[in-house]
Structures are given as structure tokens and as C-alpha cells.
Specification:
Chain lengths: 179, 784
């Protein structure tokens, strides 16, 4: 057997070696999905803190999300904190922390309508751009309105309208009653 | 040496040049060509194996009996062998001094090769591609773009794209689970239900790709309502020695580089006639550019590898084949959206947020797919007209999809961070008996069994399932050499058993069973060797896929909530088609027109639901799998004219109308009417070769799709477009080393356009100008 045929045989043997069969690495029972199940809004104003939730514990489909009705006092200064939770497991996971850690690629958009003013963002991300976990607003006269809360991933914060960019990770529209 | 009849080559249509003789002595460049007729002298005999015993140069004559051999030495003595099932061949001695045309007349079985007429056949009748088969330069030039894209050159075949790197073949309006892909004789089993799941096939593995349109399912299994794609690697060497090939390709768009190589050999020892091949491909590309901007995160990385070994004895042969396909694909970042509002915002923008820059980085979102195939096949010829075949195969497919966003909460175990991981393992056993009942009747009888397990880790879109299919088929063909008529009748019965679950919501395990028959009846009428009519009517069925029965969840990228319907019935198709083929004296002047009328009862489709589904990410439009009756009518036509020996003009047209007969509305996502015009200038690549240098200009003309249902799509269909491509191919010699060079300028005018069947058309335009260069270097290794 000369060198070339040896080389050739070597090549073929190599081919067999590379042919280890792949196997199903089924990692049951971990079939869990990543989930934000709850958007929690905490309003602090007029000497008290009230909390309202939008919750969808069974994930996409199935039962529709349950969204609390927000009740606020008129002509009051409010501080608003937004939190995101995964309540599908016990204990529930607080995802707000993760959002804060990756603040540069996240944005919380808050849009009011009717008697609910759009809150003003107070906190900044790593690049000194708005983040939105913390905000404030002042209610006016009694009336009805809505507050839309959206968590955006990778928005273009330099865009004229950053809330129309990026991917929505969580969104809920709350009805608001100011009375 | 006894030869195997041509059906050893399987269902391959067209010409297979078994051994390249490109490196043989410079003097040996003569051609021997001609065609094979029956004893009446008027009817061609198709698929005859013609080869020269001394050199092993061989070919399979085409459907019309034409063959072409090259690399013969002047004055040498040769024995020309012709063999075909039903005809008994014998060696014929001959010696030629110049390019020679012959008419071979074969007698039916029991009689011997009667006479050979050596006469002056018109030169230029070289082998050409079969009507629906892709090979040679046409195949080579498209390989860099991927398996699906390379098939677009065939009339009636389009692609369903997700960006520029994911393309699924669409045959006469049907795709995914409604077509079958046979990779080297094994039915590809992967996650083909998803429209963004491309077939896991290395195009560099193929020497020929054949598309069989219509219900071709009797031989290959149920489900093939639209057609079958056969991917055929080159046959292994028939003579002792070692050969190889290196392919290097580069594309400017995406700055893509591809290196593919193979080496094949056959041992000299006649007692141990082992042959084998090792083949591999590496591909790397970065962000694709449209005329105006780069597409973020649209790179690709691919690493494929295969080997095969074959032992060939007089009455039997055995093959082992292994292949592994791995790809990592970036998905356009801007196309990954959270909910309906995001999608609407993207459609209003109609282009990515930023112009982007070039990068090879493959970020999120992305897909990683591994497909592995091992097969073992043995054939045994029990007589001149009886062949048994047994094949075992195992396939494994792992598909991992990474969303744009990493998981917020860490996984408990140290596993891949894919949001969805689907793994499917498939075992198949297939037995076939090819036989001849009587002098004029030949056919196949076979049994097959498949067992499949699919697991889902993370992501509840598809439940875990186990699936088994048992099938039996019987096909017979009747052909008398003295009549212009040929008839074919085939039947098949399949039983499928499915166990799916536990389902996400109910946690129940569902069991279902589907069984039904498929059948085909066809006729070929060839009044003379210029004209052939084909008529085929067939019925096939497809059991609903697990994704159609039980999927439930948000489909990322399409921003839709999809809900399976557990009560779905099997689809039943009734396909009818009529083909006219006319070939001129030069076989490059040809006309093929195929008309089809296909009815599908209980056609499964995604029906928009009245109310959107509310989730914690906002509202998603909801779709439910439902059934209707569909009608697909269309024409595929191809006309080519060899205006002079140097000018070849070609025209292709494909028109399809998809109609929902229950709702009295159009079907969504049907290919728009399209035409292709091309003009090729070619010159001989040297004396004694049928190869031609050529330069070709072609225009792909796609009309706007106007046959669309209301309210089933997020945006209206894009305008039609005309895309201009320039292409060339050259054969040169560097010293004694032959080299094939090719170039393509795709979208030469840098036209900005969008394709209706690209799912990313909402977000970005199609790729801009792309210059492709390719080099193919065949070589011989002095091994023994």
C-alpha cells in the first residue's frame, strides 16, 4: 500500500469517525416557556399607594388576560412604578430587575387618553435615554380614560417616535376612572 | 461483466454520465451518439444503459432514446453494450475514426441486438435536460443560493421565502407537507410544516434534481399532493481509480463564500469492487443588501458533510450513505415583532429602521438546524427482469429557534438557550420488487414502514408526538414496442397512527388513526419521436399534520395566533394533467405544455377568526386551521428554439389560479403568474467536447398577484417586477487541468422589488445586485 492509498483509506476512516449519530436530547420535564404573566402598576399619590394588575397566568390563548380597572383621585400628583412579573410559577419571578439591568434595550411606553394624562418618564437608561419604569403625572377633573402600558425590546430610542419601533414584550390597556 | 439493468439508477430521469473522462489522453476525444429504437424502427426505447465495456464510459439514454458518449479514442476497438429491462443486449464491436452517430435497434427479450446502423445523424443532438430536471450548468449556477432557490429555474416551481436565505420549493401552488423531497432515495423527514423551515439539503450533494409534478405519491408515500422532488447524487465510479472535485464560489451580496469538495474512488481488486465518496461543503455569508440598505442579521453559516460506500457484485450491490447538514441562519432583525401593533408599524415603515451595515455576525433571532441521515440499501437481481431492494434509514432533525429576546428568567438547567427546540427521529424500512410479469408488463410492488418520534423542548407551539405509517403499493406499466401507447396503473394504501401529547392545555394524550388509498392512471402516446402526449389522473391523500391538529400559540414573525383543530379530516386530492411534448430535429428546440386541474377536498388552511386573541403582549390576529374545498388550475409551458447553432432562445410561463370552491373566493399565497425569457449565446468549448461556453441574459417577469382573497393578508400584494440576470459559463484548461468557470450577475439592474411569496416582504425589499463567481476543478488522483 503506497502513501496515497494510505491517505485515501485514512480519509474514509475519518469519515466514519465523524458519523456519530445524533440523539434526541429531550430535556423533559423542562418544557416551560418564558413568560411575562403580569403587568403591575403602583400609583402613589394623595398619601396612599394603590396597585392594579393586568394578568394572564395561562399564557397565550386559553383565558383572556384579566385587566383591573384603575381608580384614581382627581387633581392629585401621582408617582407611577411599573413592574413585570412571571406568576406562572411559585414563587413568582420579578422580571423588572432584568429590564433594569438591560435598560438600554428596553423602554416602557405609557400612553394616556381621555381623563388619564400620559405620564412623564422620570428614570433614565445606561445611555441617559428614557426607560419608563418610574414616572409621574397629575390627574385633572373627574372623568374616564385609558392607560396603555407597553414594554418594548430593542426600540430605536433616537427615533422621533420610539414607541413605534422595537418588539413588544408586554402590553395592556387599562381603563381608568378618575373620581 | 454482467451489468445491472438501468432501473438500478432508481427513478432518475435524464442523462447520467457515469464517469467523467475529462483527464484521459488528449487524443481520445471522439463522440459516439445516437438513439435507440425498437425493431419497428419508429419507436424510441427510453432509458437504455449504453456503455463501452473497455473503458466503462457509460450513459443512460433519455426518455426518447437519445444518448451521447464522449472520450473515445480513434482506431481503438470497443465493445458497445446496451441493456434494458425487457430487451436483451449483447456486446457489439466497433471502431471509429471520427465523431459518429449510430442508431441502435434493440429487440424484445429473447432476441439479441440485431443490427447497428451507422449513419450520419445530425450533429448537435447532444443530451439535453429532461423536461422537469435540473442538471449541469443550470444546477451548478444556482447552488450558491441554496437548495430551494436553485429549483426556481424549473417552470412551475417557485419558492416560499422567509428572507433571502430561507426558501421552500412550491410546486404548482403547493408546498411544505404537500410535497415530498427524496434525498438520495430517502424521504426527507423534518419540520417541513413550518413555512419558515427550509429543506435541510446540501445542493452540492446533487448532480441532478428532478421535479415530478402532480400526485406522485403512489411510489413514494402519501402526502405528495403537489409533487415530488428527487435529489440525486452522482453515481459512484464504475472503473478503478480515484477522482475528485473542488468547487469554490463567492457572492458579493452578503460577501458569501462557499467551498465544496469531494473525492471518490473505486478499488482495483475485482474480487472486492468497493467504491466510495467523501463530500463536504462550507458556506459563510453576512448581511444581505437590498438596493438601498443592508438587512440586519441576515447572515448564514452552513457546514455539511457526507460519505457513501458501495459494494457491487454481479447479482447484488449494497450501499451505505451518511449525510449531515448543519445550518445557522440569521432572521432579519426588523421582522421579529411582538404583536399586531408592531406589525402594523413595520408595514407602514415598509423598510428597516436603519440602513444597517455589513457584518458577518449572526445574532438573534436565529435558527440552528441539524439534519442527519444514515441509510443502508441492498439490491439483488434474481433474474434479468427481477430486482429486489431493501432499504433502512434513520433520520434525525434538531431545530432550534432563538427569539430576538433572550429569556428574562434563566433556565433551571444548563441547556441551550433556544426558545423552541424540536427534535424528530425517523426510522424507515422499505422493500421493493421491480419485476416483469409478461413481455409487455413491468412494474414495482413494495411495502414500507416508518416510525417517528418528535419532542418539543420549550415553546408550546407543537406537542410531542409519535407517528407510524405502514404502506403498500403496486404499480404496473404496459408498453408494446409496436404501439405508440404506454399505460401505467398504480395503487397504494397507507395506515397512519398518531399519538400526540400531553397537550399544553388539557394535558391529555390524543390518539388518532388515518388510513386511505392513493391511485394513479396514466398514459403516454408517442405517434412519432417528435411528439409525446402524456395524460395522468390520480388521487392522493394527506393526513392532517400534528401542527394543524394541535398547535396552539403565537407564531413569531408572522404575528399571528394559530390554533389547531383536533377534528380535521384527511385531505383528498384529485389531480388531472395533460402534457404535450414536442421535440424538433435538434433536441434543444422543444415545446412542453402542461395543463393541470387539481381538486382538493377538505383542503386545510388557516382561516382568520372573527376576534383577535388578547395576550399579555397585546392583541394578535387569530387563525384557526379549517377545511374547505380547493381547486388549483394552471398551465406550465416551456418553449426553446435553437435559432442557430450559437443562439438559443427560451420562454417559460407559469400561470396558476387557486380557488376556494366552498367560500367562492381565491386561495391566499398562490404564486403569481410568471414568465421567464432568456437568450443564450454559446460557442463550442473546444474540439471533441459537447460542452459549450455560453453567456446568457434572462429576465424573470412576475406579475402582480390579483387573485387574492379579501382580509386574509396584512398588506396588499406587491407590484409585479422584472428582474434581469446575466450568466456565463466557460471551460478552460490550465495546463492539463480542466477548469470550469462561471459567473452570474443576479438582479443586474439593481431593481428594488418585493415578492408576494416572501414572508418578509412586509419589512424589506428583495436583495439587490449580486455578482457570483464560481470555479469547479475536477481532478484525478493517481492512486494505484
Amino acid at each position: 500500500m503506497n502513501f496515497k492509498s494510505f491517505l485515501f483509506a485514512f480519509l474514509f476512516l475519518g469519515a466514519f469517525v465523524f458519523s456519530a449519530c445524533e440523539k434526541d436530547k429531550d430535556s423533559d420535564p423542562d418544557n416551560e416557556q418564558e413568560l411575562i404573566t403580569t403587568i403591575r402598576l403602583s400609583f402613589t399619590g394623595g398619601g396612599s399607594t394603590v396597585t392594579f394588575n393586568a394578568t394572564d397566568k395561562d399564557g397565550d390563548g386559553g383565558l383572556a388576560p384579566v385587566i383591573d380597572k384603575i381608580a384614581l383621585k382627581p387633581n392629585t400628583d401621582y408617582a407611577l412604578k411599573v413592574a413585570f412579573l412571571d406568576e406562572s410559577k411559585t414563587p413568582s419571578a420579578d422580571i423588572t430587575e432584568e429590564v433594569g439591568k438591560e435598560s438600554d434595550v428596553h423602554l416602557v411606553c405609557l400612553t394616556g387618553s381621555g381623563s388619564m394624562p400620559s405620564p412623564t418618564t422620570l428614570d433614565k437608561d445606561k445611555n441617559n435615554k428614557p426607560l419608563g419604569l418610574s414616572s409621574s403625572f397629575k390627574t385633572g377633573a373627574a372623568g374616564a380614560g385609558t392607560l396603555k402600558v407597553t414594554l418594548k425590546h430593542e426600540p430605536d430610542k433616537n427615533n422621533a417616535n420610539p414607541c413605534s419601533t422595537g418588539e413588544t414584550d408586554a402590553e395592556a390597556t387599562f381603563t381608568v376612572e378618575v373620581k | 461483466m454482467r451489468t445491472f439493468p438501468p432501473f438500478f439508477l432508481g427513478a432518475c430521469i435524464g442523462v447520467l454520465v457515469l464517469v467523467s473522462q475529462s483527464l484521459s489522453s488528449q487524443e481520445c476525444h471522439l463522440h459516439l451518439y445516437g438513439y435507440v429504437r425498437d425493431s419497428s424502427g419508429t419507436h424510441p426505447i427510453s432509458y437504455v444503459t449504453v456503455f463501452i465495456e473497455e473503458t466503462g464510459i457509460g450513459t443512460l439514454a433519455d426518455e426518447k432514446g437519445y444518448f451521447h458518449l464522449e472520450g473515445l479514442c480513434p482506431g481503438a476497438s470497443y465493445t458497445l453494450q446496451c441493456t434494458r429491462l425487457g430487451y436483451q443486449g449483447k456486446g457489439l464491436s466497433l471502431s471509429i475514426q471520427s465523431d459518429t452517430g449510430v442508431v441502435l435497434v434493440m429487440q424484445e427479450i429473447g432476441l439479441q441486438l440485431e443490427r447497428v446502423e451507422v449513419n450520419a445523424l445530425k450533429a448537435g443532438s447532444a443530451h439535453t435536460q429532461a423536461a422537469q430536471s435540473l442538471q449541469g450548468t443550470d444546477l451548478e449556477a444556482g447552488k450558491a443560493l441554496g437548495f430551494g432557490e436553485s429549483l426556481r429555474r424549473l417552470v412551475g416551481v417557485t419558492t416560499l421565502n422567509t428572507g433571502a436565505t430561507i426558501a421552500k420549493p412550491v410546486i404548482q401552488g403547493l408546498h411544505s407537507n404537500r410535497i415530498l423531497i427524496l434525498n438520495n432515495g430517502v424521504r426527507q423527514e423534518s419540520q417541513q410544516w413550518g413555512s419558515e423551515h427550509a429543506p435541510e439539503i446540501d445542493p452540492f450533494l446533487a448532480q441532478e434534481i428532478t421535479v415530478i409534478k402532480g400526485a406522485g405519491s403512489v411510489r413514494y408515500g402519501s402526502d405528495a399532493l403537489g409533487g415530488v422532488i428527487l435529489v440525486q447524487p452522482a453515481p459512484l465510479p464504475k472503473t478503478p481509480g480515484a477522482w475528485g472535485e473542488i468547487n469554490l464560489q463567492g457572492m458579493t451580496n452578503g460577501r458569501t463564500g462557499i467551498a465544496s469538495g469531494k473525492i471518490e474512488a473505486r478499488l482495483k481488486n475485482p474480487k472486492f469492487p468497493l467504491s466510495g465518496r467523501v463530500q463536504g461543503t462550507l458556506k459563510r455569508g453576512g448581511n444581505i443588501r437590498t438596493p438601498d440598505y443592508f438587512l440586519r442579521n441576515t447572515g448564514i453559516s452552513e457546514a455539511n458533510f457526507s460519505w457513501t460506500a458501495r459494494l457491487e457484485k454481479e447479482r447484488w450491490n449494497t450501499d451505505v450513505f451518511y449525510s449531515r447538514f448543519y445550518t445557522q441562519l440569521g432572521i432579519l432583525r426588523d421582522a421579529h415583532i411582538g404583536n399586531l401593533t408592531d406589525l402594523e408599524n413595520a408595514i407602514v415603515r415598509a423598510r428597516p429602521l436603519e440602513d444597517g451595515t455589513f457584518s458577518y455576525t449572526l445574532g438573534r433571532p436565529q435558527q440552528q438546524v441539524v439534519h442527519e441521515l444514515v441509510k443502508w440499501k441492498t439490491q439483488w437481481a434474481s433474474g434479468e427482469s427481477s430486482l429486489f431492494q431493501l432499504q433502512f434509514s434513520r433520520q434525525f432533525n434538531r431545530r432550534q429557534e432563538y427569539d430576538a429576546h433572550k429569556r428574562y428568567n434563566a433556565l433551571p438547567e444548563n441547556v441551550d438557550e433556544a426558545q423552541i427546540q424540536l427534535e424528530i427521529t425517523t426510522y424507515r424500512v422499505e422493500a421493493d420488487w421491480e419485476h416483469q410479469w409478461a413481455a409487455h408488463v413491468e412494474g414495482n410492488v413494495g411495502l414500507n414502514y416508518m416510525a417517528q418520534t418528535n419532542t418539543t423542548d420549550r415553546g408550546g407551539l407543537l406537542p410531542r408526538y409519535e407517528n407510524s405509517v405502514s404502506g403498500a403499493y403496486w404499480i404496473e406499466r404496459w408498453k408494446r414496442p409496436d404501439t405508440p401507447l404506454e399505460l401505467e396503473l398504480g395503487m397504494r394504501y397507507d395506515i397512519q397512527r398518531l399519538t400526540a401529547g400531553p397537550l399544553e392545555r388539557s394535558a391529555t394524550v390524543e390518539r388518532k388513526s388515518f388510513k386511505s388509498w392513493s391511485g394513479t392512471l396514466g398514459a403516454v402516446y408517442s405517434p412519432n419521436h417528435h411528439l409525446t402526449f402524456r395524460a395522468n389522473t390520480g388521487s392522493a391523500w394527506r393526513a392532517p399534520h400534528v401542527s394543524e391538529l394541535y398547535s396552539e400559540g403565537v407564531h413569531h414573525g408572522s404575528a399571528s395566533y394559530e390554533q389547531g383543530t383536533a377534528s380535521l379530516q384527511s385531505e383528498r386530492a384529485w389531480n388531472n394533467n395533460l402534457t404535450l411534448e414536442w421535440t424538433g430535429d435538434s433536441r434543444e428546440t422543444a415545446l412542453t405544455v402542461m395543463g393541470y386541474y387539481n381538486l382538493i377536498r377538505d383542503y386545510i388552511f388557516l382561516e382568520p377568526m372573527d376576534e383577535p386573541v388578547l395576550t399579555i403582549r397585546g392583541a394578535f390576529p387569530a387563525f384557526r386551521y379549517s377545511q374547505t374545498n380547493a381547486r388549483l388550475t394552471g398551465i406550465d409551458a416551456r418553449f426553446s428554439v435553437l435559432a442557430s447553432p450559437r443562439w438559443l432562445a427560451e420562454f417559460q410561463a407559469s400561470v396558476i389560479n387557486g380557488w376556494n370552491t366552498a367560500e367562492k373566493d381565491y386561495l391566499v399565497f398562490m404564486p403569481p403568474s410568471q414568465f421567464r425569457y432568456s437568450l443564450r449565446y454559446k460557442i463550442p468549448a473546444g474540439r471533441g467536447t459537447e460542452k459549450r461556453h455560453f453567456i446568457q441574459v434572462s429576465a424573470q417577469h412576475v406579475l402582480k398577484q390579483r387573485w387574492v382573497p379579501a382580509g386574509a393578508d396584512y398588506a396588499p400584494p406587491p407590484d409585479g417586477y422584472l428582474r434581469l440576470d446575466v450568466e456565463g459559463s466557460f471551460f478552460v484548461s490550465l495546463g492539463r487541468q480542466p477548469v470550469e468557470l462561471g459567473f452570474s450577475i443576479l438582479n443586474a439592474l439593481n431593481t428594488e422589488y418585493r415578492d408576494y411569496l416572501n414572508r418578509l416582504r412586509y419589512f424589506a425589499a428583495e436583495p439587490g445586485r449580486n455578482l457570483l463567481l464560481r470555479v469547479r476543478i475536477p481532478f484525478q488522483v493517481a492512486l494505484f
